[in-house]
Write a structure and sequence with these properties.
A three-stranded antiparallel beta sheet has the order 1-2-3. It has helices at residues 45-48, 54-62, 73-93, 100-109, and strands at 29-32, 37-40, 43-44. α3 (73-93) packs across α4 (100-109). It has 116 residues and is mainly alpha-helical. It folds into two domains: 7-51, no CATH class; 73-109. It is 38% helix and 9% strand. It contains four helices and three strands; from the N terminus they run βββαααα. The chain is flat.
């Protein structure tokens, strides 16, 4: 039987699994388990939770990645939902023997592209 180490006792030399190993770099978030901090785009989760709408949170995460003002996000998401729901009929009409992945491919192929 192995003895579990306390978090304060863990070092890269004695840590089991991936403790202390960086597996990916991202600009979207930072987690510091020792301090109990979660940052999203440089702001603490406490500063964001309950203060932003869904669209505001998306705009915060997408800043500098997508050039869509947050005021346009509700309209853009609504239009995307309309296009997505149009694919549901194609998924429901697909043959019964399809796997979940095959059915999703049918739905994705039925998606219309937004008019530009």
């Amino acid at each position: 039987m192995t003895t579990a180490l306390k978090h304060t006792e863990l070092t890269p030399a004695n840590a089991p699994g991936l403790e202390g190993i960086i597996v990916a770099n991202t600009i979207l978030s930072d987690v510091d388990g020792t301090k109990g901090e979660l940052l999203l785009r440089g702001k603490s989760i406490e500063a964001l939770a309950g203060h932003l709408s869904f669209e505001g949170a998306i705009a915060h995460l997408w800043q500098d990645l997508v050039s869509l003002p947050s005021d346009d996000l509700p309209r853009a998401f609504g239009a995307a939902r309309v296009r997505a729901f149009a694919g549901v009929a194609a998924m429901q009409a697909a043959p019964a023997g399809l796997t979940v992945f095959e059915r999703m491919r049918v739905g994705l192929s039925a998606l219309s592209l937004p008019e530009t």
